[in-house]
Structures are given as C-alpha cells and as structure tokens.
Amino acid sequence: MTRLLAALVLYLASFAATGAVVSLHDSFSAGDPNQVFLHEFELSAAGDISVKSWGYGGGVNAAGELIPAGGFDPLLSVFSGSGDGAVFLDSNYDELCATCHDATFTLAGLAAGSYTLALTVPANISFAENYGGGTLADGFTQFGQYYDIDSGTERLPHFAVDLSGTTLVPEPGTHTLMTAGVLLLLALARRRRIV
Fold first, then answer.
1. Predicted TM-score (pTM) of this structure
2. Nearest CA to 138 among 74, 73, 77?
3. Are residues 9 and 27 in the same domain?
4. Which of 50, 66, 100, 165 has the most CB atoms around its CB within 10 Å?
5. Distance between CA atoms of 58 and 32, rounded to whole angstroms?
6. Residues 194 and 158 in one domain
C-alpha cells in the first residue's frame, strides 16, 4: 500500500510539474459577430502561457480533436484578473503568416494568479487595448464582422483555441478525473489486502 501511495504521489507531482493545456471550442451566433468569449484561468506560480487558435485554418488541437477550417479570423487578448476589473495585458490576431489568420502568441513572466482570455473578431477590439490600457469593463468597439477580405467570403462563427503553460492550473474536470482514478486505485489496493 505504501508503494502504491508513493507511486501515486510521484505521478501526480510529475503531472503538476508539466503544466496543463486547455482546449476550448465553441460557436457564436451567426447574426452577432460582436460577441466575446471569456475564459478565466489560473497560474499556480510565475510562468509563461501560450495561446494558439485553430478555427480559421483548422487542424488538430492539443486535445487531439479535428477542428474544421472555415471559422472567423480571431482576436485573442489576455487580461490580468477576472471579471470587469481584469486589466488588459496583450493581444494578437494573426500569426507571422499574414493570410493564415489563426493567432498564436506567448506571454512570458506572468505572476501567479488569475487571468482572463478574451476571444472575438479583430474589428471588435477592446477599448482597453485601443486606449493602451484599461479593463474588461471598458467594453469592446462592436465593429465586428465575419466577412474575410483575403478570401472574399463570409466565415463561419466557430472558433477553437489552446491555452498552455507550465504553471497553468488544470481545468476542474481534470482534477475530478484524477481524484476518481486515485480513489479507484486505493479501493482496489485495499480490496486486495482484505482478500
């Protein structure tokens, strides 16, 4: 039993040390390109985060899911904190390839604490970014559209994004699954000892 517990502790410690990846995908309503998707996340210690979108060009996200191409050109922004008081840090809307339209960027040296990822279309820029500083409560410009000038087409309202970091706290679902697995292993070990 002691060996089993030691192995579980080492396993869980190695999991925590490697950080986490959160894969998100959803869709806005077709008639409202000015929507903003917000995802709050935590860093357990100082570290870096990377953000990568998949909706425009498609591909396989970090969760191994096939994301179809055809989504809108995304604007990704990161705010420090949560709720209306979250303060704008940085954003990105295109990769190095100007016609790829899937955003990717890394923020280095963030402090431990809560953060908010905001995803919308580029013309729906946050006032905080537009002014060079501010909070989520400042709102967004509401000039968004799904039309893509490069392809000359109306894009679909779906999006997908991966968020990763060495100190990123895993989603609650991950903790639940890990806890269930640990409890199952402990129950099996105890059952063997009794039998």
1. 0.78
2. 77
3. no
4. 165
5. 22
6. no
